[in-house]
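Pinned message: reference record for Methionyl-tRNA formyltransferase
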Amino acid sequence: MRVLFAGTPAVAVPSLDALVKAGFDVVAVLTRPDAPVGRKRVLTPSPVAARAMELGIEVIRAAKVDVDTTARIAEFAPDVAAIVAYGGIVPKSALGVPRHGWVNLHFSLLPAWRGAAPVQRSVIAGDEITGAVTFQLEEGLDTGPVFGTLTEAVRPDDTAGDLLERLSVSGAVLLSQTLSAIDAGQAAPQPQTGEISLAPKLTLEDGRLDWQMPALAINRRARGVTPEPGAWTTLEGQRIKLEPVGLRPDVKDLAPGAIRVDGKTVLVGTGSHAVELGRIQPAGKKMMSSADWARGLATPERVVFE
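Predicted structure (tokens):
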């Protein structure tokens, strides 16, 4: 079966590798254009583009699936298009190009968390179970019938990055199995059922920690926005980036945002009990341990996060 693969970030690479390993004829890869990376803003291929070039697969770089991009896709005459985090909308005119349509690997248990940030929103919401599905892409936002499903437990210390990495590997197997079933004429997609929730793309503001919130909510948000856009707070008007925070239910006498240094441990008050800071990155500096950061404060017990 001739497959067009569409994807951009590193989490899509395992799926590309799995399809090649399974023997599918991956005729081309659609990915977003090279983007500036690092302080020097060097134009760099997407992780999927880089892997496709290593595999000797032709790459179509496009910021959106417009008329010209659709024509390029049609030139490869794919039987099916597999899409994993491409980062753009596929219009109706392109959906009908492959005879089996487009199959999307999505990292949630649809219809829960339809949208661009399903794993992040799941962690922030405190879900104990999540997963991934393959479904037939339609014009609606992640509304198509589901081919296959897998589940994954959300561990108490999982960041969104940790969870997404695991799902990208197991999801690659699911995608390969789905395409095999389609090729064999054995696929039977089922309509989505259950409660619908939305997972819009995270913004920088989503990473801001509100110390008036309960500790568990702060912990979940910090883990859900790691690694991107990152958890942060402010101190004297300066933005400070934080790594995920631990729970300290034994400390209940700190006001929200107030800091206490206990040996090598830095505690911060919340709307319930304290949390323990991981690493911290002050404005203009590198990430460091919270203990090292606290040692640089003249009177740490008077510091209050805003």
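Pinned by admin. Summary line: Helices lie at 13-21, 47-55, 67-75, 92-95, 118-125, 160-183, 215-224, 290-295.
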